[in-house]
Amino acid sequence: MKLTWKPIMAGILDVVSGAIGMVGGIYFVVLGSVFRIIHEVMGMDPLVVQQTEQIISKLFAVPFVLVFIGIISIIGGVYALQRRIWPLALAGAISSCIVFPVFGIPSIIITALAQKEFS
Fold first, then answer.
1. At CA 58, angle to CA 76 and CA 41, rounded to 5?
2. Any residues with CB less than 8 A from the CB of 68 and at least 6 apart, and which?
């Protein structure tokens, strides 16, 4: 069997997309924390602080989901680079599509085309 560039390219796209997702998730966590600190320091109206905290608490689960999906994407990318466990590499490509579709869609296509190269 001839080895091609496809799994390597798919793995690189997965890892980069997962890193982007993790950085984005961490950014949202830091942004929410900074927002709370600013409200406490400025001594804003308690009603505004309460409404802002409700919005932040509802959106606070999103960053953790982004970080989790980013981790799955990075793990799948590593397996794609190693040309091992094709279903896990495909799961990484799909999760990278959720986080960053610009890299995720080509990664899914390339991973599907390179299925025969995985052990």
1. 110
2. none
Residue type, 95: S
Q: Would you state the structure tokens that stand for residue 80, as one six-digit string? A: 């794609």
Tens-digit pLDDT profile for residues 32-86: 777 777 777 777 666 776 777 677 767 777 788 888 999 999 999 999 999 999 9
Q: Which residues contact 28 (CB under 8 A, 6 or more apart)?
A: 59, 62, 63, 66
Residue 111: what pLDDT? 95
Burial of 45 (0-12, 13-18, 19+ CB in 10 A): exposed
Q: How many CA atoms lie within 13 A of 30 on its CB side?
A: 6
Q: In the chain, what are the helix, strand and coil shares in percent, each to the nearest 5?
A: 85, 0, 15
pLDDT of residue 34: 78
